[in-house]
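Teaching assistant's notes for section 4

Start the section by putting this record on the projector. Ask students to predict, before seeing the second block, whether Cytochrome c oxidase subunit 3 will look compact or extended. Collect guesses on the board.
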Amino acid sequence: MQTTRLAASAPRTVPGDLAMWFFILAELAVFGLFFAIYGVVRARQPELFAAGQQQLSLLPAIINTLLLIAGSAAVAAAVRSFAAGRAAHGQRWLLAALGCGGGFLLLKSLEFAAKFGAGITLSSNDFWMFYLALTGFHYLHVVLGMVIIAAVYVRARQGAYDAANHVGVETAAAYWHMVDLVWLVLFALVYVAH
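Reveal the predicted structure now:
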């Protein structure tokens, strides 16, 4: 009888840098706390929040959702490209992710400008305070995500990543996926849920 020996496999590791995962978990905890407080305040003032939601335009928010999902797909494709030793393709996918992030920031900036132009501020009422604080905080995370991806792109152009070493690309992708996930929850809570 022939016995088959299973080769010992290397332990699986979390993609990207472990420090980034701790940062991501901390950020998710902060957003989770904000979402919980939003839910409590909304439950106490359902009419106010419903009236505020009716003043939001759903189409730009849907486009922004699609842009962030496309950006996540692009960074995932970048990771796969670098892992396959196709650095030039990976660089193009990083640029695509930056383009998606830039599109998001442009649309969101226009939305903010329209609200500020209409006299809406953090002190207008509780709905607008949460809307501006949550979406503004997320906006800053998109900016940070783009800075991280841009830094990875610059390093990739210098030949820093290949099939054997692309941890930096995985780290940027992990952060971008967190930004995308937070937006999906934010979109559902602020724009869609009634």
